[in-house]
Amino acid sequence: MTLKLFTLLLEAALSTLGISLVSIAIGFVIAMLLSAALLSGKSVYILPARLFISFFRGVPLLVQLLLIYTLLPVIGINVPGIVAAIIGLSLCTAAYQAENLRGGFASVPRGLIEAADVAGFTGAQTFARIRAPIAIRLTFPALVNEAIMILKSSSLVSVVGIIEITKMAQDLASSTYQPIPIFASAALIYFVINSAIALLGRYAERSLKGASA
Amino acid sequence: MSVPAIAIRKLVKRFGETAVLQDIDLEIPEGKVSCLIGPSGSGKSTLLRCLAFLEEPTSGMITINGEALGFFEDPTGRRERLPANQIRAVRTKTGMVFQQFNLWPHMTALGNVSEALKLVRKVPKAEAEERAMAQLRKVGLENRAGHYPSQLSGGQQQRVAIARALALEPKIMLFDEPTSALDPELTGEVLNVMRDLASEGMTMVVVTHEIGFAASVGQQISFLDHGRLLFSGPPAEIFAKPRHARLEQFLDTYLDRGASMLA
Q: B218 lies in a domain?
């Protein structure tokens, strides 16, 4: 195992990190929209949101990725693999994040919403300024957990032709016949990245606590 | 006579089959302190919540400064829900203070008081915070502006909640058992803020178990029992010679507990 091989793995890690972080962010925005839909009280919004969540939680991510990658060109949308990968991961994590947030939204005390109502907030203002910030604080550890899950699940995007850590490790292992040091290095890189996310999460959680507990 | 601050006409509120309020007729005059008293489950909090439109009346009509709240009902009983923006507009004439304070935990005291000014009234940040600070000063908490609710005592939280309601310059303040969640030692500081407010001529509707406060500050006392308004009048009339058997019985329980200054 040479430094050159390790550098190649690190380069692939950038693609893992980039795809994962972008997907988590897009997924969070979609999860917020799903939450708003679920809280709207209108079945035209609630039913599609529920369907979305059950579909993306109920179908393996690998199948979702393959489906998106093969389906898009058929309906006339030609996208590079990386876009298909980000779409797949985003939609999947959106469903899980929405489900995590649902518990948080349900735990926002009714009285805090009433206080916003009597102050003349619109429904959207109450969502943005009261319900969402409190729900995010309540579910923050679960959201960090989901970020780590997605970073690990991103190893699946190799099926749509993306070279990320796992795929690079497989290629290097088969061309150098040194599978053990290479896979061990890949594991180490995942471990370091996820520990960093967990640590950042812990830190953010504490500063959020300081502002609310 | 001028338009009453609040006029309640034939108000009925049912939760399913249960009638919580039955045919309430009440006028609350401007600039007066009106106290709603009665045993638990009498409907007094529900009545107040109807005035804030946190509960929607089943039938009947409420007007705030002559403007219909939530629904318009014509004399034939035909009822029409008013548009959301109009409901919000009428609602901004009232400010509400809750039993559980309901301060937003992720905002400082200053944030709680200035938020609606910025968001609803579109006041620029600096001016909103200046006005919020003035309200905090009024309730004696300007040195707690940067504190989060969790860092404040119950009495301080309730004073911030009062400042938050006052910041929107309401014509009428609604108080829902504002001291019931407080230790007896802390009720005084909240009642004092309310006394100051009353002396400034604020129209106030107060649901309270503090009979002493009702007797000394209240100018109109309404007694509810089992969803009905049994009596409404000036405190002297109610406390000095309660003629209604049920009211007498209710007040006796307070006198038993040593509130003898009322007698």
A: no
Joined tokens for residue B177: 């058992």
Is there a domain that residue B115 lies in?
A: yes
Question: Looking at the 3D structure of chain B, how many domains does it have?
Answer: 1
**C-beta separation of A78 from A169 below 8 A:** no
- Residues A118-167: pLDDT tens digits? 999 999 999 999 999 999 999 999 999 999 999 999 999 999 989 999 99
Residues of chain B found within 8 Å of residue A109, distances taken between Cβ atoms: 100, 102
Put simply, whether A197 touches B (Cβ < 8 Å) is no
Q: Round to whole Å and give the CA distance between A94 and A104.
A: 15
B170-196: pLDDT as tens digits:
999 999 999 999 988 889 999 999 999
Give the pTM: 0.88
Any A CB within 8 A of B98 CB: yes
- For residue A1, what pLDDT is reported? 65
Q: Would B61 be classed as within a structural domain?
A: no
Contacts of A133 in chain B (CB under 8 A): 106
Phi-psi region for residue B24, left (φ > 0), alpha (ψ -120 to 50) or beta?
beta
From chain A, pick out residues whose CB is under 8 angstroms from the CB of B105: 112, 134, 212-213
Query: Are residues B205 and B34 in contact, defined by beta-carbon separation less than 8 angstroms?
Result: yes
Q: Which domain holds residue B157?
A: 104-169
pLDDT tens digits, A24-38: 999 999 999 999 999
Taking an 8 Å cut-off on Cβ atoms, the answer to whether A125 and B103 are in contact is no
Domain presence at residue B127: yes
What tens digit of pLDDT does each residue of A47-79 get? 999 999 999 999 999 999 999 999 988 998 888
- Average confidence (pLDDT) over B18-25: 93
DSSP label at A161?
T
CA B29 vs CA A44, B176, B234: distances in Å: 45, 19, 12
What domains appear along chain A, each with residue ranges and CATH number? 3-210 (1.10.3720.10)
* B223 neighbors B244 (Cβ within 8 angstroms): yes
